[in-house]
Specification:
With about 170 residues, this protein is of the alpha/beta class. It contains 6 helices and 6 strands. Strands 1, 2, 3, 4, 5 and 6 form a 6-stranded mixed beta sheet that branches. β1, α2 and β2 form a beta-alpha-beta unit. Pfam families: GDPD.
């Protein structure tokens, strides 16, 4: 019989988009606070900017989580960095920025045991996102603690076939 304490060791606590119930999702503040309270895993969403920088944002557009409008892929990194990614959540969070994967990797360097659930959002350039993310995460030595997610079966197949990554998602219909 498994005791309650033994069972708890099997549970992984994940910060979905960081600590998104208390802080603006997919921001460095949200990730930092989730890490400080001891999450076992961080989940985050990746997209490419117009100039091919890997940025962390859930939606295809910046409309919901910033003071801008339009597709993420229509903005350069410099333009994305001018947007306010915190004010929508509340006045105390005004001025937060959309982070890059590199910036998150820098934060994660102090948390060597945290697992990463890396979600590549379906898009025409999703395989480019995969290649750039794998390169960045490999440089940091983080690939062994990553699981990659996508809701596009072709992108999942690409992740596995080209990079041999641990993947999760839904099969194509």
């Amino acid at each position: 019989m498994i005791t309650r304490l033994e069972h708890q060791k099997e549970i992984i606590v994940a910060g979905h988009r960081g600590w998104k119930s208390a802080y603006p999702e997919n921001t460095l503040l949200s990730f930092r606070r989730a890490l400080e309270i001891g999450v076992d895993m961080l989940e985050f969403d990746l997209r490419l900017s117009k100039d091919k920088a890997v940025v962390i944002i859930h939606d295809e557009t910046v409309d919901r989580t910033t003071d801008g409008t339009g597709k993420v892929s229509d903005y350069t990194l410099a333009e994305l960095k001018r947007l306010d990614a915190g004010g929508w959540f509340g006045k105390p969070f005004e001025g937060l920025k959309i982070p890059t994967l590199e910036e998150l990797c820098e934060l994660l360097s102090s948390y060597p045991d945290v697992l990463l659930n890396v979600e590549v959002k379906p898009s025409p350039d999703a395989t480019d996102v995969v290649d750039a993310a794998v390169a960045a995460l490999d440089r940091c030595g983080f690939l062994p603690r990553c699981s990659f997610t996508c809701f596009d079966a072709a992108v999942l197949a690409y992740m596995y076939d080209k990079h041999g990554l641990k993947t999760q998602g839904f099969p194509g219909s």
